[in-house]
Amino acid sequence: MTRENRRLDVMFGLGLAAICLLPWYRVEGGFFSLQWIGEMAGEPDLNPGLLQLFLGRSWLLIAFILFAAAIATRVSMPAGKVRGARLALIGAVGVGFMILQGLAITLWGWAWSLNETLFGPLDPGQPAFGAGALILSLGFLALIAYGFAERGAMKGDAFTLGSIILLIALVGVFVFYPIISMFAGSFQDFDGSFNPDGFIRNIQDPAIWSLDCVIGGARCGVAWRTLFLAVMTASASTLLGLAFALVATRTRFPAKKGLRLLTILPIITPPFVIGLALTMMLGRSGLVTGWIEALTGIELGRWLYGLTGIWIAQVLSFTPISFLVLIGVVEGVSPSMEEASQTLRAGRWRTFRKVSLPLMAPGLANAFLIGFIESMADFGNPLVLGGSHGVLSTEIFFAVVGAQTDPSRAAVLAIILLTFTLSAFLLQRVWLAGRNFATVTGKGDSGKHAALPGPLAALLYAIVVPWIIFTLAVYGMIIFGGFVTTWGLDHTLTLEHYARGFSVEWREGALAWTGVAWDSFWTTMEIALIAAPLTAAVGLLTAYLIVRQNFFGRNAFEFALMMSFAIPGTVIGISYIMAFNLPPIEMTGTALILIACFVFRNMPVGVRGGVAAMSQLDKSLDEASITLGAGSPRTIRRVILPLLRPAIMAALVYSFVRAITSISAVIFLVSAKYNMATAYIVGLVENGEYGIAIAYSSVLILVMITVIGGFQLLVGERRLRRENAVSRPAAEKRAQSSLEAKA
């Protein structure tokens, strides 16, 4: 307990510093700029919490009394269950009070009219929480962890308890609180007062629910139009992903390595760039459109601009993700199952249809769900190709930034979008629940999968080869578009777009970044490089707790974390704006809101990768470490993490790429100071500057490939020593030589 007491004392020291030294409320210029140190004397809102009591904010005294009671408990009572219960109770009351007073008191006084009726007007109010308030809140959370540890929970491991409590708090703040704020915002007026009229008017709007059309038609309600598009995109991307996976694993396709490389390109491509390339090929002035009109005399018109064009762009964008999900599933089907079927005289077609395909059901369900959610959340392609056929993501955007701003309509549309995606997420879990698809056991098999039926292989080739050619043509347009003067008018080759975006000059003895794209580029790199390791750390820590620890509510905890994956980026963006634009936590216009969005939006991927990798590590490894006196932090650092390098690499790469290419959430959260690359490129597209937009996207693709290689070198590979019967004589020979040398 001596070590735990020392840690508890450190926590109390930080809490006292938060109360007596640090600014209690939010610093406008940023806490880490340290400008507040010189401004504290002349700016009352920058004073620490203890001085805020003398400025009329007497309610803070309750929090300080609770913290003083915790210190008195630590000093006056020996460690044990009684002291643990008291510390946990003080911590829980402290956290509850901080939340309550933060939500109930705004900058102008009471947030709820009921409080004003009960207690009268409140003057003054309070700004958003700053460093002092947040550190004290974390201190109360730590008290809960230390209290339960002293009572023997989790074998007295305060680190594990603290990690669980901290993750629950973070998910509550950055996932559930924004969603709740969005629901509340649909019933609020511009001044924040309760007004259900906007919700009732929008939820009954025929433009959302109208079925007076052929499904997917122009006049169909935006909700059904979006749902129809998502189902079609998910179905097509899943089938194409399965076709690519079967060709890569079950046929003698001559360019399998190139096929795998081709599937990575759309993942590291900004989402709207594919829409631009399709416009160059098949738009009104597109290259292919011009050839067809010249040869046939038929004017194709604007057929690409609508659901058809969006669907093509989305299938191109999301098929690679389905392929990456399904290739492991296809390879994971045990050959012994297929051999047993053929031994019982089933043909190759019947074996595939009755044995192989049903065992791929979990992968197919996951691929469909990912395609469905990605289509629902997609913003870039509908913005470029949608025309008058808006979808929920673009309608939400225009409800926020359009000429007629309507926050209530944006919230209602986001709720509908969230309902669709969560319904698909829950249906998938219900469908897969209770089914067993395991085929890999301890028994050996030949390791060779059954060949595909001849007609099926021919059909797959007929699908995959044209799609490869089409994909290569699209990326050819992307490269070509960055080197022509004006697409569709003047195809003279030029480097003007790259020079304008990324020019560098030597001025007055220093390097000057004069290109128009540099500001957003460096901001994007900085935020992505901060968010990527944080995402990996949070995801892998969560995976460790899920796999290695047993605690009450673990299944609900895992489900809540994975549910954040089912929340579309558009919903995340609008909910963050509604939640973090006002006290108690105000982050709009800062880099912190972008980092938080990326971390908790992409965290589920790190969790699933970490769970899969950690499930392969025997628990005896960390049990042996703890038995030898190492605590949980050291065991994770010295034993678990070195064996999780592939999972760390996957989490780093995915979170970094998503931070650069995301647009659906980012478009709502960027500011003039922190403008991300994707939002900047959208502005270029809206202004018709396609050349610079494509040049910028090409640079981002090259940078992502380079950084991914750097992550690979930094993380390295997991090295496990294995010996088998074949290598044993050589090993014995080396051992004998070593003994002779020593002799």
- Provide the β-strand percentage band: under 5%
- Which regions contain 5 or more consecutive residues with pLDDT less than 50? 436-444, 717-728, 730-743
Category from helices, strands and their pairing: mainly alpha
Shape: globular
State the end-to-end distance.
Answer: 51 Å
Main sheet attributes: strand count, strand direction, barrel closure: 2 strands, antiparallel
Q: Helical region count?
A: 34
Mean pLDDT: 81
Radius of gyration: 29 Å
Strand order of the largest sheet: 1-2
Quaternary organisation of the protein chains: single chain
Range of helix content: 55-70%
Total beta-strand segments: 6
Transmembrane segments: 53-75, 87-108, 128-149, 161-180, 227-249, 261-283, 303-334, 355-373, 410-427, 458-484, 527-547, 559-579, 591-611, 647-670, 690-715
Subcellular location: Cell membrane
Domain ABC transmembrane type-1: 223-428, 521-711
Family: Belongs to the binding-protein-dependent transport system permease family.
Description:
By secondary structure, the protein is mainly alpha-helical. 67% of the residues lie in helices and 3% in strands. The protein contains 34 helices and 6 strands. The protein has helices at 2-20, 36-39, 49-52, 60-76, 81-104, 113-119, 131-150, 158-185, 197-203, 206-209, 222-250, 256-264, 271-282, 287-296, 307-332, 335-343, 348-359, 361-377, 380-385, 392-401, 407-432, 454-481, 496-502, 518-548, 554-563, 569-579, 591-614, 619-627, 632-640, 645-661, 666-669, 677-686, 690-715, 728-742; strands at residues 105-106, 109-110, 484-486, 490-493, 504-507, 510-513. The protein is globular. The two termini are 51 Å apart. 41% of the residues are buried. It is found in: Cell membrane. Pfam families: BPD_transp_1. Residues 223-428, 521-711 form the ABC transmembrane type-1 domain. The chain crosses the membrane at residues 53-75, 87-108, 128-149, 161-180, 227-249, 261-283, 303-334, 355-373, 410-427, 458-484, 527-547, 559-579, 591-611, 647-670, 690-715.
